[in-house]
């Protein structure tokens, strides 16, 4: 097993979780209203859904790795272009003003509600597959041990993002403004765009 897959998965997990959409706004508002623990529990629900979709995407790419070797140029090209598109969209898009609609009672309710909201968005698996392909994250996978490290990294990266977000919002609650959220989106967009450019440059 190559521990480098853990780092690749970590990067993918952060890239998928970082853009501030309805789930992000929901976690921010819960942190402000009910405290850091509730905000983090909400984020962990989303991270668990990311783990499931990331596993499906990684296993799918691993299963067809032999077929993809002959068209790896095209898969990485399309993946890199998707990363660039996602980065530019995140960079220019204003953060969502409305949180995802979900009721929650206690930490378990906060966790379960965001998990349900995230897992019911199957488009996420397409994003994972494109990011994996664009970054070459699944290339060189030699077995399910490497795949396990990859998806463990995805979960860790997503969980790390929600921990930082809920903790940061709790500490800086007076400074959490639409402008601040816009800068979060801009930073995330630049990072994702950078990965896309790097993926395309690696083809040259």
Q: What does this entry look like structurally?
A:
Helices cover 78% and strands 0% of the residues. The chain has 204 residues and is mostly helical. It has one domain (4-201). Helix 1 packs across helix 8. It is globular. Mean pLDDT is 75; it is low at 64-71.
Summarize the structure.
The protein is mainly α.
Number of helices: 9
Mean pLDDT: 75
Helices and strands, in N-to-C order?
Answer: HHHHHHHHH
- What is the terminal-to-terminal distance? 29 Å
Query: What is the helix content?
Result: over 70%
Give start-end ranges of low-pLDDT stretches: 64-71
Q: Largest sheet at a glance?
A: none
What's the topology here?
Layout: H1 4-17, H2 22-34, H3 36-63, H4 65-69, H5 72-92, H6 106-119, H7 123-135, H8 144-171, H9 178-201
Question: Key terms for this structure?
Answer:
single chain, 204 residues, mainly alpha, 9 helices
